[in-house]
Amino acid sequence: MTQLEIPVVDISRDPLTVGREIDETLRTVGFFQIVEHGVDPDVMDRCWKLTRAFFDLPDADKLEIERQTGSSYGYFPIATESLAQSLGGMGAGDLKESLNALASPALRHTPVDDVERELFTPPRWPSALPGLKGAWGAYGREMNVLAERLMSIFALGLGLDATFFADKIDQAPQALRAINYPEQAAPPADGQLRAGAHTDYGTLTILRQEMGRGGLEVHDSRTDSWIPVPAVDGAFVINIGDLMAQWTNDRWTSTLHRVVNPDAGSTVSTRRQSMPFFHNANYSQLVECLPTCLGSGARYEPVLAGPHLSGKSRKSVVTA
Ligand SMILES: O=C(O)CCC(=O)C(=O)O
Ligand SMILES: [Fe+2]
Fold first, then answer.
1. Which residues in 36-174 belong to E strands, given as ranges?
2. 3-state DSSP assignment of residue 247
3. Is the CB of 84 under 6 A from ligand 1?
4. Which end of the chain is more exposed for a tag (fewer CB within 10 A), N or C?
């Protein structure tokens, strides 16, 4: 059997052509990379560098914005999250620290309950790094534009009108996260990874990963093997999450992925940074099988997008 290929797609071409190609890819691999995406390279670079500077701050400055109970965002210290736990069971804490912030455009409605309010808590920013807020704001705006464009390409690929998703994602709790995977001075515990195997939760994820620092791997269920996702200069890695898989009635796959540990004793730096933008549907959006994906019948009960998301992210918190 041929090894699974993660394609690199130029999305500046005709959206219907791109949509059809992506439809093929998401039926099998669930992951692809995009180039010619139009995201301002200066905005990308500034955000990336300031984010690295955040992780380089003394712990006390980072802990000033540690995630509070009742908020989904803030600074998560090393090993306080286990992505593998989101699939059930218990997992060792992931060997990473992260910074998380709401990245939605201004909400035009009042949250329907405390869980939605939690997803819309305004981010806090470190006093030691005044430029970070603006840099994340600018990058978050670029991510929203790109995600909306991808959702429109997705709609075309699914045989729907290009605007099908527009009013279903315009008030959603979008989240931007930066992850720092530090060098590993001590060997990891048994089964402990940089990020345990998981699927993402929402509609789609737009990930920037560091050049030349591997670690992200995608599961090939046909051969039960793990395929590395190579870093491509200027590209974003795109994958869909569980909500989109349900929406498409499993026509598209929410693929299992993980971030593996670097080799012990490496002579070059093994520190790695990544920035995923997690795109979601509106909190109260009912997600039920799309009209073009019904096939021989709906496999899932309809779900509300917001509670589905909150349920998953709560499971990943490591309790001491
Ligand atoms: O750091 C990466 O490359 C991927 C991280 C990831 O899969 C996640 O945070 O959901
Ligand atoms: Fe992920």
1. 74-76, 97-102
2. helix
3. no
4. C
- Which tokens belong to 262? 């670097």
Residue 195 CB less than 6 A away from ligand 1: yes
Q: For residues 201 and 243, what is the distance between their CA atoms, to the nearest angstrom?
A: 6
Residues forming a β-bridge with 10: 35
- Which helix (H) or strand (E) is 132 found in, with range? helix 132-157
> For residue 135, which amino acid is it?
A
Cβ atoms 112, 286 nearer than 8 A: no
Do the beta carbons of residue 63 and residue 75 sit within 8 Å?
yes
The Cα–Cα gap between 309 and 319 comes to 19
Point out which residues pair with 277 in neighbouring strands: 176, 206
Class of domain 8-314: mainly beta
Share of the chain above pLDDT 70, in %: 98
3-state secondary structure labels for all residues of 188-253: CCCCCCCEEEECCCCCEEEEEECCCCCCEEEEECCCCEEEECCCCCCCEEEEECHHHHHHCCCCCC
Please name which ligand lies nearest the alpha carbon of 260: 1
Answer whether 82 contacts ligand 1 (Cβ < 6 A).
no
What the block records as the tokens of 187 is 């060997």
> Which pTM does this prediction carry?
0.96
CA atoms within 13 A on the CB side of 195: 25
pLDDT at 163: 98
The closest alpha carbon to 306, from 200, 175, 172, 204, belongs to 172
Q: Which ligand is nearest to the CA of 207?
A: 1
Nearest-CA residue for atom 9 of ligand 1: 276
Contact in structure between 285 and 305 (CB atoms under 8 Å): yes
Cα separation, 9 vs 119, whole angstroms: 32
Residue 232 buriedness (CB in 10 A; 0-12 / 13-18 / 19+): middle
- Regarding the beta carbon of 194 and ligand 1, being less than 6 Å apart is answered no
| Ligand 1 atom, smallest distance to 177 CA | 9
